Amino acid sequence: MTDADDLPEPATEVLEDREGIPFAGAGPGDPGLLTVRGRALLADADLVVHAGSLVNSELLDAFCDHAEQVNSVGKDLEELVPLMRDAYEEGRTVVRLHSGDPSIYGAALEQMDALESEGVPTYFVPGVTSAFAASATLDTQLTLNEVANHVAFTRPQGKTLSPEEDHISEFVRMGDVTTCIYLGTHAVRETMDRLLEDGVDPDTPVAVVYHASWPDEDVIRGTVADVADAVEEAGYRASALVVIGEAVTGGGYERSYLYGDWANGGSDDGGEADRDAEAAEGDD
Ligand SMILES: C[S@@+](CC[C@H](N)C(=O)[O-])C[C@H]1O[C@@H](n2cnc3c(N)ncnc32)[C@H](O)[C@@H]1O
Fold first, then answer.
1. Separation of 143 CA from ligand 1 center, angstroms?
2. Boundaries of each Tetrapyrrole methylase domain copy (predicted)?
3. If we measure between CA atoms, which residue out of 278, 230, 233 comes closest to residue 258?
Protein backbone atom coordinates (compact mmCIF):
# COMPACT_ATOMS: atom_id res chain seq x y z
CA MET A 1 0.00 0.00 0.00
CA THR A 2 1.23 3.53 -0.76
CA ASP A 3 2.49 5.39 2.27
CA ALA A 4 0.61 8.69 2.60
CA ASP A 5 3.97 10.46 3.00
CA ASP A 6 5.00 9.26 -0.49
CA LEU A 7 2.03 10.91 -2.17
CA PRO A 8 2.66 14.09 -4.19
CA GLU A 9 1.61 17.44 -2.79
CA PRO A 10 -2.10 18.06 -3.40
CA ALA A 11 -2.66 20.20 -6.50
CA THR A 12 -4.40 22.72 -4.26
CA GLU A 13 -1.17 23.55 -2.48
CA VAL A 14 0.85 23.60 -5.69
CA LEU A 15 -1.58 25.94 -7.43
CA GLU A 16 -2.01 28.23 -4.46
CA ASP A 17 1.73 28.85 -4.66
CA ARG A 18 1.60 29.49 -8.40
CA GLU A 19 3.06 32.73 -9.67
CA GLY A 20 0.77 35.23 -11.31
CA ILE A 21 -2.80 36.45 -11.17
CA PRO A 22 -5.45 33.74 -10.80
CA PHE A 23 -8.65 34.21 -12.80
CA ALA A 24 -10.94 32.45 -10.37
CA GLY A 25 -14.58 31.46 -10.51
CA ALA A 26 -16.71 32.80 -7.65
CA GLY A 27 -19.42 30.24 -8.36
CA PRO A 28 -23.08 31.06 -8.97
CA GLY A 29 -23.72 33.12 -5.84
CA ASP A 30 -23.95 31.06 -2.67
CA PRO A 31 -20.65 31.63 -0.82
CA GLY A 32 -20.73 27.91 0.03
CA LEU A 33 -20.27 27.13 -3.65
CA LEU A 34 -16.92 28.91 -3.91
CA THR A 35 -14.22 26.29 -4.31
CA VAL A 36 -11.76 25.55 -1.52
CA ARG A 37 -8.97 26.82 -3.75
CA GLY A 38 -10.86 30.01 -4.59
CA ARG A 39 -11.40 30.66 -0.90
CA ALA A 40 -7.72 30.12 -0.10
CA LEU A 41 -6.68 32.52 -2.86
CA LEU A 42 -9.09 35.19 -1.64
CA ALA A 43 -7.83 34.80 1.91
CA ASP A 44 -4.37 35.85 0.67
CA ALA A 45 -5.52 38.61 -1.67
CA ASP A 46 -4.66 42.29 -1.29
CA LEU A 47 -6.71 43.30 -4.34
CA VAL A 48 -9.83 41.54 -5.64
CA VAL A 49 -11.18 42.68 -9.00
CA HIS A 50 -14.69 41.23 -9.18
CA ALA A 51 -17.59 41.00 -11.61
CA GLY A 52 -19.93 43.37 -9.80
CA SER A 53 -23.52 42.40 -9.14
CA LEU A 54 -23.09 38.86 -10.48
CA VAL A 55 -20.84 38.10 -7.50
CA ASN A 56 -22.90 37.87 -4.33
CA SER A 57 -21.93 40.69 -1.94
CA GLU A 58 -22.28 38.18 0.91
CA LEU A 59 -19.38 36.26 -0.62
CA LEU A 60 -17.29 39.43 -0.89
CA ASP A 61 -18.11 40.33 2.72
CA ALA A 62 -17.31 36.82 3.94
CA PHE A 63 -14.06 36.21 2.08
CA CYS A 64 -12.69 39.53 0.77
CA ASP A 65 -13.37 41.99 3.58
CA HIS A 66 -9.66 42.40 4.29
CA ALA A 67 -8.80 43.21 0.65
CA GLU A 68 -9.25 46.20 -1.62
CA GLN A 69 -12.23 45.43 -3.87
CA VAL A 70 -12.70 46.83 -7.36
CA ASN A 71 -15.85 46.29 -9.42
CA SER A 72 -14.87 45.59 -13.04
CA VAL A 73 -18.27 46.50 -14.48
CA GLY A 74 -17.99 49.55 -16.73
CA LYS A 75 -14.19 49.36 -16.89
CA ASP A 76 -12.52 48.56 -20.20
CA LEU A 77 -9.33 46.56 -20.77
CA GLU A 78 -7.25 49.75 -20.94
CA GLU A 79 -8.27 50.51 -17.36
CA LEU A 80 -8.40 46.99 -15.92
CA VAL A 81 -5.12 45.63 -17.24
CA PRO A 82 -2.85 48.44 -15.92
CA LEU A 83 -4.74 48.33 -12.61
CA MET A 84 -3.99 44.62 -12.13
CA ARG A 85 -0.48 44.83 -13.65
CA ASP A 86 0.60 47.74 -11.43
CA ALA A 87 -0.74 46.08 -8.27
CA TYR A 88 1.01 42.83 -9.18
CA GLU A 89 4.30 44.60 -9.93
CA GLU A 90 4.08 46.42 -6.60
CA GLY A 91 4.10 42.98 -4.98
CA ARG A 92 0.44 42.91 -4.05
CA THR A 93 -1.52 39.67 -4.30
CA VAL A 94 -4.18 40.12 -6.96
CA VAL A 95 -7.19 37.88 -7.62
CA ARG A 96 -9.49 38.41 -10.61
CA LEU A 97 -12.86 37.04 -9.53
CA HIS A 98 -15.35 36.13 -12.25
CA SER A 99 -18.90 34.95 -11.63
CA GLY A 100 -19.62 31.24 -12.04
CA ASP A 101 -16.75 29.72 -13.98
CA PRO A 102 -14.43 32.16 -15.75
CA SER A 103 -14.35 30.07 -18.91
CA ILE A 104 -18.07 30.55 -19.62
CA TYR A 105 -18.97 33.94 -21.09
CA GLY A 106 -16.35 35.52 -18.90
CA ALA A 107 -14.11 37.31 -21.45
CA ALA A 108 -11.25 36.20 -19.22
CA LEU A 109 -8.77 35.21 -21.90
CA GLU A 110 -8.51 38.67 -23.45
CA GLN A 111 -7.57 40.10 -20.03
CA MET A 112 -5.13 37.25 -19.43
CA ASP A 113 -3.48 37.66 -22.84
CA ALA A 114 -3.14 41.41 -22.29
CA LEU A 115 -1.57 40.82 -18.86
CA GLU A 116 0.75 38.12 -20.22
CA SER A 117 1.91 40.50 -22.94
CA GLU A 118 2.77 42.97 -20.15
CA GLY A 119 4.86 40.24 -18.50
CA VAL A 120 2.31 39.30 -15.83
CA PRO A 121 1.61 35.55 -15.62
CA THR A 122 -2.00 34.44 -15.21
CA TYR A 123 -3.87 31.19 -14.74
CA PHE A 124 -7.42 29.83 -14.45
CA VAL A 125 -9.06 28.54 -11.29
CA PRO A 126 -12.42 26.96 -12.12
CA GLY A 127 -15.72 27.69 -10.46
CA VAL A 128 -19.25 26.30 -10.43
CA THR A 129 -21.03 27.67 -13.47
CA SER A 130 -24.61 28.88 -13.06
CA ALA A 131 -26.00 26.09 -15.27
CA PHE A 132 -24.90 23.58 -12.63
CA ALA A 133 -26.51 25.62 -9.86
CA ALA A 134 -29.70 25.90 -11.95
CA SER A 135 -29.74 22.16 -12.50
CA ALA A 136 -29.49 21.62 -8.73
CA THR A 137 -32.28 24.13 -8.17
CA LEU A 138 -34.46 22.25 -10.64
CA ASP A 139 -33.69 18.94 -8.91
CA THR A 140 -32.65 17.43 -12.19
CA GLN A 141 -29.66 16.42 -14.28
CA LEU A 142 -28.64 18.23 -17.42
CA THR A 143 -27.92 14.87 -19.02
CA LEU A 144 -30.55 12.25 -18.27
CA ASN A 145 -30.65 8.71 -19.55
CA GLU A 146 -32.90 8.42 -22.65
CA VAL A 147 -33.99 12.06 -22.21
CA ALA A 148 -30.96 14.28 -22.79
CA ASN A 149 -27.64 13.01 -24.09
CA HIS A 150 -26.03 16.40 -24.61
CA VAL A 151 -25.83 19.86 -23.05
CA ALA A 152 -25.43 23.11 -24.95
CA PHE A 153 -24.19 26.27 -23.23
CA THR A 154 -25.29 29.09 -25.45
CA ARG A 155 -26.54 32.67 -25.65
CA PRO A 156 -29.16 34.36 -27.83
CA GLN A 157 -28.48 36.58 -30.80
CA GLY A 158 -27.90 40.26 -30.10
CA LYS A 159 -25.04 42.72 -30.18
CA THR A 160 -22.42 39.96 -29.79
CA LEU A 161 -24.06 37.11 -31.71
CA SER A 162 -25.43 37.47 -35.25
CA PRO A 163 -28.64 35.63 -36.25
CA GLU A 164 -26.47 33.14 -38.20
CA GLU A 165 -24.47 32.39 -35.04
CA ASP A 166 -27.58 31.78 -32.93
CA HIS A 167 -28.06 27.98 -32.82
CA ILE A 168 -30.73 27.75 -30.11
CA SER A 169 -33.43 26.42 -32.47
CA GLU A 170 -31.04 23.80 -33.83
CA PHE A 171 -30.11 22.59 -30.35
CA VAL A 172 -33.74 22.41 -29.20
CA ARG A 173 -34.91 20.69 -32.38
CA MET A 174 -32.32 17.95 -31.82
CA GLY A 175 -34.63 16.76 -29.04
CA ASP A 176 -32.06 15.18 -26.75
CA VAL A 177 -30.11 18.33 -25.88
CA THR A 178 -30.56 20.37 -22.70
CA THR A 179 -30.05 23.94 -23.85
CA CYS A 180 -28.75 26.35 -21.22
CA ILE A 181 -29.05 29.96 -22.31
CA TYR A 182 -26.79 32.48 -20.59
CA LEU A 183 -27.22 36.23 -21.00
CA GLY A 184 -30.74 35.79 -22.32
CA THR A 185 -33.12 36.86 -19.55
CA HIS A 186 -34.04 40.09 -21.31
CA ALA A 187 -34.74 38.21 -24.54
CA VAL A 188 -36.95 35.31 -23.42
CA ARG A 189 -39.92 36.51 -25.51
CA GLU A 190 -37.86 36.93 -28.70
CA THR A 191 -36.10 33.59 -28.13
CA MET A 192 -39.37 31.68 -27.63
CA ASP A 193 -40.98 33.41 -30.63
CA ARG A 194 -38.04 32.36 -32.81
CA LEU A 195 -38.30 28.78 -31.55
CA LEU A 196 -42.00 28.69 -32.47
CA GLU A 197 -41.27 30.18 -35.90
CA ASP A 198 -38.62 27.50 -36.40
CA GLY A 199 -41.15 24.73 -35.74
CA VAL A 200 -40.15 23.66 -32.22
CA ASP A 201 -42.87 21.80 -30.28
CA PRO A 202 -44.68 24.55 -28.28
CA ASP A 203 -45.02 22.15 -25.32
CA THR A 204 -41.24 21.76 -24.93
CA PRO A 205 -40.50 22.39 -21.23
CA VAL A 206 -38.61 25.54 -20.22
CA ALA A 207 -37.38 26.69 -16.83
CA VAL A 208 -36.06 30.15 -16.10
CA VAL A 209 -33.92 30.07 -12.98
CA TYR A 210 -33.32 33.50 -11.52
CA HIS A 211 -30.35 33.95 -9.15
CA ALA A 212 -29.70 30.22 -8.76
CA SER A 213 -28.26 29.52 -5.28
CA TRP A 214 -28.94 33.08 -4.02
CA PRO A 215 -31.35 33.75 -1.13
CA ASP A 216 -33.85 35.28 -3.58
CA GLU A 217 -33.56 32.40 -6.05
CA ASP A 218 -36.74 31.90 -8.10
CA VAL A 219 -37.89 29.39 -10.71
CA ILE A 220 -40.40 29.98 -13.45
CA ARG A 221 -41.53 26.81 -15.18
CA GLY A 222 -43.46 26.71 -18.41
CA THR A 223 -43.23 25.78 -22.03
CA VAL A 224 -41.87 27.39 -25.16
CA ALA A 225 -45.42 28.63 -25.78
CA ASP A 226 -46.11 30.28 -22.43
CA VAL A 227 -42.95 30.90 -20.37
CA ALA A 228 -42.33 34.42 -21.71
CA ASP A 229 -45.59 35.72 -20.21
CA ALA A 230 -44.59 34.48 -16.76
CA VAL A 231 -41.06 35.91 -17.01
CA GLU A 232 -42.43 39.30 -18.03
CA GLU A 233 -44.93 39.18 -15.20
CA ALA A 234 -42.13 38.46 -12.74
CA GLY A 235 -40.14 41.34 -14.23
CA TYR A 236 -36.84 39.52 -14.64
CA ARG A 237 -34.55 41.19 -17.19
CA ALA A 238 -31.14 39.80 -16.09
CA SER A 239 -29.36 37.23 -13.90
CA ALA A 240 -31.38 34.19 -14.92
CA LEU A 241 -30.53 31.05 -16.79
CA VAL A 242 -33.02 29.78 -19.37
CA VAL A 243 -33.03 26.00 -19.56
CA ILE A 244 -34.90 24.27 -22.38
CA GLY A 245 -35.58 20.57 -22.87
CA GLU A 246 -37.31 17.55 -21.38
CA ALA A 247 -34.59 17.16 -18.72
CA VAL A 248 -36.00 20.27 -17.03
CA THR A 249 -38.88 18.14 -15.73
CA GLY A 250 -36.62 15.48 -14.21
CA GLY A 251 -39.01 12.84 -15.57
CA GLY A 252 -39.21 10.32 -18.38
CA TYR A 253 -35.77 8.79 -17.90
CA GLU A 254 -34.85 5.13 -18.15
CA ARG A 255 -32.88 3.23 -15.57
CA SER A 256 -29.24 3.45 -16.59
CA TYR A 257 -26.75 0.70 -17.30
CA LEU A 258 -24.54 1.93 -14.48
CA TYR A 259 -26.76 0.46 -11.77
CA GLY A 260 -28.42 -2.07 -14.05
CA ASP A 261 -28.00 -5.81 -14.21
CA TRP A 262 -25.33 -6.09 -16.83
CA ALA A 263 -23.14 -3.51 -15.18
CA ASN A 264 -23.41 -5.08 -11.74
CA GLY A 265 -23.85 -8.74 -12.60
CA GLY A 266 -21.10 -8.65 -15.19
CA SER A 267 -20.08 -11.51 -17.43
CA ASP A 268 -16.77 -12.86 -18.44
CA ASP A 269 -17.31 -11.60 -21.99
CA GLY A 270 -14.56 -9.09 -22.86
CA GLY A 271 -16.87 -6.67 -24.65
CA GLU A 272 -19.22 -6.54 -21.70
CA ALA A 273 -16.33 -5.89 -19.38
CA ASP A 274 -15.23 -2.93 -21.50
CA ARG A 275 -18.73 -1.52 -21.45
CA ASP A 276 -18.89 -2.04 -17.69
CA ALA A 277 -15.71 -0.05 -17.31
CA GLU A 278 -17.08 2.76 -19.45
CA ALA A 279 -20.37 2.76 -17.59
CA ALA A 280 -18.53 2.91 -14.30
CA GLU A 281 -16.87 6.12 -15.48
CA GLY A 282 -20.25 7.68 -16.23
CA ASP A 283 -22.72 9.25 -13.91
CA ASP A 284 -25.88 8.11 -15.57
C1 LIG B 1 -21.59 37.20 -18.20
S2 LIG B 1 -22.42 35.68 -17.96
C3 LIG B 1 -21.32 34.95 -16.82
C4 LIG B 1 -21.57 33.49 -16.60
C5 LIG B 1 -20.67 32.89 -15.54
N6 LIG B 1 -19.30 32.92 -15.96
C7 LIG B 1 -21.07 31.46 -15.18
O8 LIG B 1 -20.27 30.55 -15.37
O9 LIG B 1 -22.18 31.27 -14.68
C10 LIG B 1 -23.77 36.19 -16.97
C11 LIG B 1 -25.00 35.32 -17.17
O12 LIG B 1 -24.83 34.12 -16.42
C13 LIG B 1 -26.09 33.73 -15.91
N14 LIG B 1 -25.98 33.68 -14.45
C15 LIG B 1 -24.94 34.06 -13.69
N16 LIG B 1 -25.17 33.78 -12.40
C17 LIG B 1 -26.40 33.22 -12.35
C18 LIG B 1 -27.20 32.66 -11.31
N19 LIG B 1 -26.79 32.65 -10.04
N20 LIG B 1 -28.40 32.15 -11.63
C21 LIG B 1 -28.83 32.12 -12.90
N22 LIG B 1 -28.12 32.62 -13.93
C23 LIG B 1 -26.92 33.14 -13.66
C24 LIG B 1 -27.12 34.71 -16.39
O25 LIG B 1 -27.67 34.21 -17.60
C26 LIG B 1 -26.27 35.92 -16.66
O27 LIG B 1 -26.86 36.74 -17.66
1. 20
2. 22-227
3. 278
- The whole-chain average pLDDT of the chain stands at 90
**Tens of pLDDT along 100-140?**
999 999 999 999 999 999 999 999 999 999 999 999 999 99
Task: Please give the number of the atom of ligand 1 that sits closest to the Cα of 127.
Answer: 8
What does the pLDDT look like over 255-272, one tens digit per residue? 887 776 654 554 444 444
CB atoms < 10 A from the CB of 265, how many? 9
pLDDT at 74 over 50: yes
d(CA 25, CA 1): 36
Residues touching ligand 1 (Cβ under 6 Å) are 28-29, 54, 98-101, 104-106, 129-130, 133-134, 182-183, 185, 209, 211-214, 238-241
As a whole number of angstroms, the distance between CA 3 and CA 35 comes to 28
Residues 21 and 121 in one domain: yes
Nearest CA to ligand 1 atom 1: 105
Q: Are 21 and 123 within one domain?
A: yes
Q: Which range of residues forms the domain containing residue 282?
A: 259-284
Q: What is the pTM of this model?
A: 0.89
Let me know if residue 254 belongs to a domain.
no
